[in-house]
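User: two proteins, same treatment. go.

Assistant:
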Amino acid sequence: MAFGKNPHVAKAQAAEQKAEDASDDDTRARALRDAAHQWDRAAEREPPGKRRVEYEASATRARARAEGGAPERGAPEETAGAQDAVAVDPKLWN
């Protein structure tokens, strides 16, 4: 850890990675709540500004994901909708 770095950012990112690698919903929710707690701690250490707002938003997002309110990044629902929105040239149809 370098001087001046916020150690809670790395801990929050590690908790989010643990949530992505979790095999069941309970473990995933617990890891996301831990990530939200670490993001809150990181925000407390920052002076008011862009980083603090960013860390608070990350904490809110992690809590929403833990409660099942927001889909995870790269979830099939998001990617499927993006692929369907692509216009296909009718000349390429059989």
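Protein 2:
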Amino acid sequence: MSKYKTPCLLFDNECPLCKRFKMSLERIELRDINLSFYEIQDEGIYQAFPFLNAERVNKEIHLVLSNDPPKVIHGAEVLTFLIDKNPKIKKFSWLIDSDMGQKAVNTFYSSVNSLRSHLRSHCSKCKNKRAKPQIDTGL
């Protein structure tokens, strides 16, 4: 049995924004989901979930929903999924169900991910860090 459980959120432990997002998620109530958290720097996740592309995982948030069969969501879709799992926010889910609401979620995610990339490019610890090359399966 693997020590890595699904569903799990993969986060960048070297990014202050990612660490803060993870800490916030640990404090909120999520309906019908027991979420685990794993650092993208942990090489074991790429062995446990060989369908992941390390380079892509380094570029955007990933949520592994299941291992067999592989089911992964990433980017703004993760935010939409997590919003749907929070009973307090669920009351306002109609706002994100609209095209305009989805555009707002996508814009928010894109802006935060852009800021994360900017921070990483100016971080002496992160700048020279390279992801292990893997075959891109699209997940």
